[in-house]
C-alpha cells in the first residue's frame, strides 16, 4: 500500500514519521488503515515510495 520496505517503515516509526504498528499476536503486526491513509494523504505528492529502488531489465 505504501511502497516502503519493512526496514524503512520500522525506521520511520522510530522517527515518528509513520503510524505505530499494532501487535496482533505471535509475530504478526498491522496498522490502523485510517492512520496509514492519513499519513499517505499528508505526504507531498511524489514522495510516497521515494526510497524504493526501481529495477529495469
Automatic annotation (TrEMBL):
<protein>
    <submittedName>
        <fullName>AlpA family phage regulatory protein</fullName>
    </submittedName>
</protein>
<dbReference type="InterPro" id="IPR010260">
    <property type="entry name" value="AlpA"/>
</dbReference>
<dbReference type="Pfam" id="PF05930">
    <property type="entry name" value="Phage_AlpA"/>
</dbReference>
<dbReference type="InterPro" id="IPR052931">
    <property type="entry name" value="Prophage_regulatory_activator"/>
</dbReference>
Amino acid at each position: 500500500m505504501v511502497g516502503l520496505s519493512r526496514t524503512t517503515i520500522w525506521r520511520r516509526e522510530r522517527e515518528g514519521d509513520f503510524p505505530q504498528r499494532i501487535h496482533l499476536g505471535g509475530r504478526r503486526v498491522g496498522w490502523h488503515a485510517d492512520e496509514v491513509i492519513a499519513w499517505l494523504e499528508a505526504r507531498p505528492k511524489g514522495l510516497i515510495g521515494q526510497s524504493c529502488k526501481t529495477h529495469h531489465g
